[in-house]
Write the structure tokens for this entry.
Amino acid sequence: MTADIEVPPIVEMRGITIRFPGVLALDNVDFTLRPGEVHSLMGENGAGKSTLIKALTGVYAIDSGSIAVAGERQTFDTAADAQEAGISTVYQEVNLCTNLTVGENVMLGHEKRRGTGIDWKATHREAARHLDSLGLQLDTRSMLSNHSIAIQQLVAISRAMVLDAKVLILDEPTSSLDRGEVEQLFGVIRDLRDKGVAILFVSHFLDQVYEISDRITVLRNGTLVGEYPIEELPRDALVTKMIGRELEDLAAIANSSHRSIDRTGTPVVKATGLGKRGVLEPADLEIYEGEVVGIAGLLGSGRTELVRLLYGADRADEGSVEVHGEHARLHQPRHAIEHRISLSSENRREEGVVADLTVAENIVLGMQARQGWLKKIPKKDQDAVVQEYIEALGVRPANPNALVGNLSGGNQQKVLLARWLATAPELLVLDEPTRGIDVGAKADIQRKVAELSAQGLSVIFISSELEEVLRMAQRVVVLRDRKKIGELEAATTDLDALIDYIANAGEGTAA
Amino acid sequence: MAAMTMARAETRTKERGESPVQTFISRHGGMMPSFAAVLILILLFIGGEIFLRGDFITPRNISALLLDNAVLLVLAVGMTFVILTGGIDLSVGSVMAFTGILGAKMLGDGVPVGIAIPAILLGGAAIGLLIGILVQYFGVQPFIASLAGLFLGRGLAYIVSLSSIKVENDAVLWLQSTRIRLGDWYITPTGIIALTTVAVAAFVLHLTRFGRTIYAIGGNEQSARLMGLKVGRAKIAAYVISGFCAGLAGLLLTAYSGAGYPRNGIGTELDAIAAVVIGGTLLTGGRGYVLGSMVGVFVYGTIKTIINFMGAEQSWMQIIVGSLLLLFIVVQRAIVARSEGRR
């Protein structure tokens, strides 16, 4: 299926350089896309993938270099210019208008007209035809807001088809889709590829990259590492090229996590019968000093809900919580913080970092919360702590005065972690701390968490990546359908056993 | 997270087949506030009818409703465009005063109608263009940009004249004095102009790509831009249309009152905004109908009429409109929250 190398490329980007204030986002990068291929763009967060895509779609202006589409040199000033040239993009955050109908979102700007006005009947018929070719039967007159993100994503792709795109860019299209939906999407992608559309695919899921791609281009720190046919780049070689160092780190983390925990004393935090009607059935949970408890379960199984009840972000209507053996009333996050419990939320942009403050200011926020708002923390102490965490977690750029909003997702997560660590918690709850961040940052975060827990910090670790849960935790709590179904010792459980337990434990019915 | 999974399951069942009621809600949920406005209008009519013992819903009163509110209706139409993009235009009251007094002055100085009227309309549109450029190219908040327009318009009005100028031009007075009768019903050329404005606006908003771009901007401006729509142009055009409508309202007001007066229309921009919101347009943009705004204007006018008939204090007008506005904003908030929860 690999595209013939003789086919003239549809997109040729040569020597692309883009500078942002203080950052060289892309440095002399070449990229070639051929008709009828699926080409994956790989790299850590902050490697320049998004920047390269935005250069190609006219969102960012390039400082130097050239872009040619179908052999013609182009300068794109707006997204409309790029679309005109046949380049369509489906972004990770679906960029449609939820206040309009499905059909209109597909056809917006290309509505069928009769005389002076839009012919809505023909427009909706056309939209239905495009949706149908992706295997979607939707009421085109229903509002887009009534549909799930997955459907919206497919609607966005239908829209790209209306534009008769020669190049389709899919930026993390699968991050909110379930397995069946991914299959449906891949079917569509293969179809389009066979029709000669060039597809640029970006995803964090290596399995998916290997399933769908013909060719891979790897970026690192804004520079080009190389372009490879998929057969010539095994996974470990890809990962090594992406992060530029060996992945022995992760194995070391797994080793350091597999230690035994003394569970004879009083648990740091003990929840008994904690539950809320319609949210979570009553569950028990104990965390001992220095222990990492993983929480595993499918999306929507109640993982986040459990820790939110524990933390007091949502109010439980039954059950009690003990901290060091004493009854604690955790009705608000403030109470939890007073008991030295911190929760790092899965929505890091909305509930986590303050994008408009600097790295240092974000970290100091955490220290200040511990100190009380009125007590001034000496500048020297602040600097020392900030420097310590920047180094310990490997925040890039290692500049305390960089705005957090300009950092990549992985580095924002590191700053967030640093902020919670600065509150000196006894129990740190991490909800999906590594979602959507790159392999390198993931390893940095995992290493730090393993190190801290070895020093006595208790951690609750939630992740959709089960390997990660098993690697980090000593004990894994499994949830299904908003109910705790059991606990497993990580040392004696492998991935298959865990998956099997999540799916089949209890009544023996498949989930 | 869980909500998403549930929403997904929900969508699936929906796609399998749904009752007509569900289909209606999934298609026209956004119309609910406008339906509510119609309902309130009907209730007001019934209330007036009961209070005046059958003397309220008369052809004379209904005809007068249009005549007395033609100016506000034209302003509300322009305002609808701007609010649909998620903006606001505070300048319309004073732009109306400026264009009104400018027209009266020009006609008084012997400028022919064929020049004076286009000058009025273009004057309004020019101030709208200025606001639009400030908003689009200089990134000024619509509130601030149009506040500047408000002061500019009022200042220009005082420059033209500090006192009222009477209009004696027959063509302009004809707009108001002519009664086209059908039994007890009548309509004036000003009423026809106002209704035509509504019809043209409805056509533009629902049946042209420009109109749909206005909705897309209000829904998600970033998305609209990435979809390749001409966002900048459409946004500026919305303010130009609002300014043009303010100019037209200036003409109608001059005809209605037979004079231009630089203190006209103080606070009228707020009445127009209230009418648009009561008519079901979301203040955050993207949802609403120009016909809804018309209903909003009639609700506003009917409350005013009833209070006049009752002989009550005019301050009750403000209190009632204020309460209605509050009610509608709460309802809108609930609708937005619901549609966000669905995602």
In short: The CA atoms of residues 57 and 338 of chain B lie 37 Å apart. Chain B touches chain A through 42 residues (CB under 8 Å). Chain B is about 75% helix and 5% strand.
